[in-house]
Specification:
Number of strands: 11
Number of domains: 3
Mean pLDDT: 83
Protein name: histidine kinase
CATH superfamily of the largest domain: Histidine kinase-like ATPase, C-terminal domain
Pfam families: HATPase_c (PF02518), PAS_9 (PF13426)
Strand order of the largest sheet: 6-8-9-11-10
Keywords: Kinase, Phosphoprotein, Transferase
Largest sheet: 5 strands, mixed
Shape: elongated
Order of helices and strands: HEHHHHEEEHHEHHEEHEEHEE
Enzyme class: transferase
InterPro entries: HATPase_C_sf, HATPase_dom, His_kinase_dom, HisK_dim/P_dom, HisK_dim/P_sf, PAS, PAS-assoc_C, PAS-like_dom_sf
Strand content: 15-25%
Structural class: alpha+beta
Length: 363
């Protein structure tokens, strides 16, 4: 038995490859060989392809641009041509291909033809296009957020400056006239709330001018305490009760104004859309889950009907149970845009009349 050199098996191996279309052609581009991968990918049987010029595999608009000749010219000059572009199979449905065309020479270096290898990259192209579309969507969302922040910041600056000035004036007037510490405490809370509100507005204005958001480490406990101070009158008026557990994830690296906006909107909604027959109870919990920091905010409020649970995350859309409350419908839409823009996701679990749980997966 005579053992053949290993390289003699190579043509047979190539002919049976299914994942790649591999064929040889002469120096003029006439197809000489045709493997199974060619038949599966391009739809032509060997007898239909062999003897024809390889330009048959190009869509008309690329042939009109002279791409087949250009490929051969580059491969002949530099020894190799590689690209990704459209190719046309027998059924005419274009597919995205990664192609390599390699020059073949004889022992004396004379050109004898070319080998072409093609791989179907349609799924990769589809994913790439979807990714570009998502990036474009995020850019549009960011523009909308900045426009909203810029408008809100501009419109709110004047009244909040007036509130701050009036609070300082009232504080000065009462300082030497009253000894009631309770009244002085209320005035001080009013002043601190005005300052905090002013800080929020300033941050909103800055966001419209910044190209990128700055990520810093935030303490959930500190952020919630700031919001509770800002909403202290509403909390006191409604006797709202908070249950907080940050043991699973005390901190997060996130833009300051974004995490504050997320929590403030959720807490505000929990108080605003409370059930009239019971005091609001708000549970806030943070944990780590599958690469995310999971923020869960649960309330015992009015709840949301199942058919309305998705639309509440659209800007200027409100749930059907909120008709008696004032509001613009911006809050949850803004939260969703912030979370999406930072590569996270938001979910809601709710039953009408029993309350809601918002799950925010933060990246």
């Amino acid at each position: 038995m005579i053992n053949k050199p290993l390289e003699t098996y190579f043509p047979n191996i190539v002919s049976e490859v299914k994942g790649f279309a591999i064929f040889m052609m002469d120096k003029d581009g006439v197809i000489l060989t045709w493997n199974i991968g060619c038949e599966l990918m391009k739809g032509y049987k060997a007898e239909e392809a062999i003897g024809n010029n390889y330009e048959m595999l190009f869509p008309d608009f690329l042939r009109e641009k002279g791409l087949p000749e250009n490929e051969i010219e580059i491969a002949c000059t530099y020894g190799r041509y590689e690209t990704e572009n459209w190719r046309r199979p027998k059924n005419g449905e274009l597919f995205w291909a990664h192609v390599v065309l390699t020059r073949v020479t004889d022992e004396e270096g004379n050109l004898v033809g070319y080998v072409k290898i093609t791989q179907d990259q349609s799924e990769k192209k589809k994913f790439h296009d979807q990714l570009l579309s998502k990036i474009d969507d995020f850019k549009k969302m960011n523009t909308e957020l900045n426009e909203f922040a810029n408008t809100a910041s501009h419109d709110l600056k004047a009244p909040i400056n007036n509130i701050e000035g009036l609070a300082l004036l009232l504080k000065a007037e009462l300082e030497n006239k009253l000894d009631d510490r309770h009244i002085h405490h209320i005035v001080e809370l009013m002043h601190q709330s005005a300052l905090k509100f002013k800080s929020v507005i300033t941050d909103m204005g800055k966001s419209a001018q910044e190209e990128t958001e700055h990520y810093t480490y935030q303490s959930f406990n500190d952020v919630v305490d700031e919001i509770k101070l800002l909403l202290s009158q509403d909390i006191k008026k409604t006797n709202a009760v908070f249950h907080e557990d940050y043991g699973g994830a005390p901190f997060i690296r996130y833009p300051t104004k974004h995490i504050r906006s997320i929590l403030q909107n959720l807490i505000t909604n929990a108080i605003k859309y409370r059930c009239p027959d019971r005091k609001p109870e708000i549970s806030i919990r943070t944990t780590l889950e599958e690469g995310y920091t999971l923020l869960e905010v649960t309330d015992n409020g009015q709840g949301i009907n199942e058919e309305h649970q998705q639309r509440i995350f659209s800007m200027y859309r409100r749930g059907e149970n909120t008709n008696e409350e004032e509001g613009t419908g911006v809050g949850l839409g803004l939260v969703a845009k912030i979370v999406d823009g930072n590569h996270g996701k938001i979910e809601v679990e709710s039953r009408n009349g029993e309350g809601s749980t918002f799950k925010i997966y933060l990246k």
